[in-house]
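Help needed: design a sequence for this.
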């Protein structure tokens, strides 16, 4: 059974860092594109970053470009989201998800497997 499990969230002060992990089981992650999304109550899930299986260049939303870094460790079947210079507006539940196509679509509805999410809170 395909499964994604996120971890690494928590409470951090503005300017701090966190590294999120997303471990895949039941399938080989390096054959798939995979994205990171975040959601705050009352708003749609927002694509933060995405990595295709065909190339190593991640996509980043403008709001996180230069602060977040997505990477993949195929040996561990895991992707990471390194988040630096965190801001209060980065507070959200963060999810990893695989899309129905081997690309990085923007819409959350184009992703079919989701993890359970991990809460990130940036506050002093």
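Sure. Designed sequence:
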């Amino acid at each position: 059974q395909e499964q994604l499990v996120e971890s690494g969230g928590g409470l951090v002060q503005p300017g701090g860092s966190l590294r999120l992990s997303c471990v895949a089981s039941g399938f080989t992650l390096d054959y798939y594109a995979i994205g990171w999304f975040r959601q705050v109550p009352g708003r749609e899930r927002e694509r933060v970053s995405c990595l295709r299986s065909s190339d190593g260049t991640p996509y980043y939303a403008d709001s996180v470009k230069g602060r977040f870094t997505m990477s993949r460790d195929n040996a561990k079947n895991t992707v990471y989201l390194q988040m630096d210079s965190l801001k209060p507006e980065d507070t959200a539940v963060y999810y990893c998800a695989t899309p129905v196509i081997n690309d990085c679509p923007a819409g959350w509805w184009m992703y079919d497997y989701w993890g359970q999410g991990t809460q990130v809170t940036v506050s002093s």
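The mean pLDDT is 95.
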